[in-house]
């Protein structure tokens, strides 16, 4: 009994084998080649026409079921090349780095209202709530909190003056600048060293221009470019961000799509957890370095020779002081193991160096 699909499936398996061979030598050509797999459907149709046109009286024609797994194989291969692979390229922080646009928002083409506010020190924290901000934090010299800012107003609004109405709360101040006519805020915030500041803010650029080694900074929101130096604590819950920090003693960062670079002699504890990310840490003493990534790259450079290293990687390459492994983990103790470097990456790369030279 003749079976429809026999010739087509034979040609299909040949095509699949050729594609697999080409993938080993030329990925671009293989990606183009797989796009032609639907021609097998045409051949299958032609085979049906041919067999039934030449069918003898009383002859039965069956179906070759090998066509089913063959078509499924080609569908999955096509999905990978045309959908999954491009997505991987778009979010491929392993090779190309993570690019966060500097053009997060536009505060131009509106009214720029100058606002100055000076507050006596109250409690130990100020909370700042707004969207679209370009701010700098400096250390005040008179133990007061000062806001030297511009509030950017929509041109269509009839607002020509703006007065900041601070709210006194149990631990300090809360300031909301989130009216519908406000496009954003820019300027300088002065705080005493040891005073803490919290931002609830989407779309922000934030720089600390002076060291505030006794201050804590809390940030929650989405989309940001950050430059920090000399903080006691940095705690962030944010997606889509770029952080450059120096001498941040203790940092806790949670989010997705992030690029984190922290360095300095005072960096002791960094706890970072992201889905997609790139993390660079450079310090002298690793009291507690913990990084968890779904996909990404982690580089740790330290001169601390006394660490307990737990480097866990499912897919990719892990390297400790020049000793590398693929799709594996490295668990070892260097020196007396007083410091902790605990890194877990599902897919990506881990590089840890405990020498002065990278």
Task: Assign a percent range to the helix content.
Answer: 10-25%
Helix-strand pattern, N to C? EHHHEHHEEEEEEEEEEEEEEEE
Percent of sequence in beta strands: over 45%
Task: Please tell me what the overall shape is.
Answer: elongated
SS field, number of helical segments: 5
Report the radius of gyration as a whole number of Å. Answer: 30 Å
Strand count, sense and closure of the main sheet? 16 strands, mixed
Task: Name the descriptors.
5 helices; two-stranded parallel sheet; single chain; elongated; 19% helix; 358 residues; 16-stranded mixed sheet; alpha/beta; 18 strands
List the topology elements.
Elements lengths: L1 E3 L1 H18 L3 H8 L4 H15 L7 E3 L3 H24 L2 H4 L14 E9 L5 E6 L2 E7 L5 E9 L13 E3 L2 E6 L4 E10 L4 E5 L3 E5 L3 E52 L5 E15 L4 E15 L4 E14 L2 E4 L2 E6 L4 E15 L5
Parallel strand pairs: 1-2, 4-8, 4-10, 5-9, 5-11, 10-12, 11-12, 12-13, 13-14, 14-18, 15-18
Antiparallel strand pairs: 3-6, 6-9, 7-8, 15-16, 15-17
Helix pairs in contact: 1-2, 1-3
């Amino acid at each position: 009994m003749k079976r429809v699909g026999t010739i087509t499936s034979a040609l299909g398996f040949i095509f699949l084998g050729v594609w697999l061979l080409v993938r080993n030598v030329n990925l671009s050509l293989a990606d183009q080649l797989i796009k032609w797999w639907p021609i097998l459907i045409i051949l299958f149709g032609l085979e049906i026409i041919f067999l039934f046109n030449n069918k003898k009286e009383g002859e039965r024609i069956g179906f070759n079921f090998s066509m089913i797994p063959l078509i499924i194989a080609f569908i999955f291969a096509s999905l990978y090349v045309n959908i999954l692979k491009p997505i991987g390229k778009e979010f491929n922080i392993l090779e190309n780095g993570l690019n966060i646009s500097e053009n997060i928002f536009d505060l131009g083409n509106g009214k720029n209202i100058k606002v100055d506010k000076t507050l006596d020190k109250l409690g130990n924290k100020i909370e700042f709530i707004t969207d679209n901000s370009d701010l700098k934090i400096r250390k005040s010299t008179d133990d007061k909190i000062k806001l030297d800012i511009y509030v950017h107003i929509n041109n269509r609004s009839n607002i020509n003056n703006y007065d900041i109405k601070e709210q006194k709360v149990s631990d300090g101040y809360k300031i909301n600048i989130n009216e519908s006519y406000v496009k954003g805020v820019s300027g300088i915030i002065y705080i005493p060293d040891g005073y803490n500041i919290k931002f609830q803010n989407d779309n922000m650029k934030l720089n600390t221009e002076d060291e505030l080694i006794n201050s804590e900074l809390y940030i929650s929101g989405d989309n940001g470019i950050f430059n920090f130096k000399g903080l006691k604590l940095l705690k962030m819950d944010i997606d889509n961000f770029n952080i450059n920090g120096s001498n941040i003693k203790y940092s806790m960062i949670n989010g997705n799509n992030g690029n984190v670079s922290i360095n300095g002699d005072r960096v002791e504890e960094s706890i970072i957890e992201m889905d997609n990310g790139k993390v660079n840490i450079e310090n002298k003493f690793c009291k507690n370095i913990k990084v968890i990534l779904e996909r990404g790259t982690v580089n740790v450079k330290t001169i601390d020779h006394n660490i307990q290293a737990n480097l866990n990687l499912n897919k990719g390459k892990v390297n400790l002081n020049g000793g590398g492994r693929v799709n594996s983990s490295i668990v070892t103790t260097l020196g007396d193991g007083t410091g902790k470097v605990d890194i877990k990456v599902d897919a990506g790369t881990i590089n840890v160096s405990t020498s002065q030279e990278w």
